[in-house]
Amino acid sequence: MEITVRDAVTMLHGMGFGALLLLAFSGAVAGLYSTSIAGHPWTDRERRLACAYLVAMAALAWITVLAGAYLVYPWYRAVAPPGTTDLSGYPQRLLMSNTSTSGWHDIGMEWKEHIAWFAPITLTAVAYIFIRYGAHLSQFRGVRNAVLALAVTAFVATAVAGAFGAMLNKFAPVRGGSTITIMKGEAHD
Amino acid sequence: MTDANQTPITNGPGAAAILAASAGCFALGVLALAGDASPPIAAMLKVWKPTGPLSGVTDVAILLWLVIWFALNRLWKQRTVNMATINLASVALFVVGILLTFPPFMDLLQGK
After folding, report:
1. What is the residue extent of each domain of chain A?
2. Which chain B residues are closer than 8 Å to A110 by Cβ?
């Protein structure tokens, strides 16, 4: 069972950071609704935990986009030397070489690479406002509604980026670099 | 409304964070379109060659977001602002920002 370094980094970016971020949204929306709209009484400890949760989500969003843009994307957009016929090491070129797959780059990657950045920006604002206002947030109706809208915007941006990322990696996986052997497999007849 | 130190709490800092986030996303959309439409601008946005123009698009957008946030926060720190107007402006900036990052809309604007 082997994996290349590029496979591993891409998987960490998408399945690790990105998927974990997507999972975290349900907790964030439930928490924001509970404390700022439903008005459930929270203890100081619960509020501190919620602050840490939102800060962790913002940090996760930044790590995801930075890893995507500065580690995975350069491998994705690598230019194939002239005359290259095997484009498997050049995912962008591989997708663009066929009209049945070029849309995954032209729409999928082109949208994903930009909209993904909406998530860390909006989640940073969400975390800041939650910490800044604390228990008073429920008393500022306009701010609390906007905070929920920001969280939903971040979720949509993450979902778009994640869905296209999964499909892009299905049609043109980012592969290469050193091989990591996870375990030795058994020989089958 | 006051906090533990008896400092009045206003909606200003929240409004600043909300409007700045939407302005940052709008700036990202405008820069993405500019880079896509103009090769000279795309070349200027290549802050880090391996990532190409995306590095400049995101770096400049983040810088603008932080500068706008800092400026608005200073301006509105102690003030109560009209949240309906702020939220409406933010929704508009987010919607346009999302549209400007959507490739078919980018192409439509460029007549492609």
Report:
1. 2-78+88-181
2. 36, 103, 106
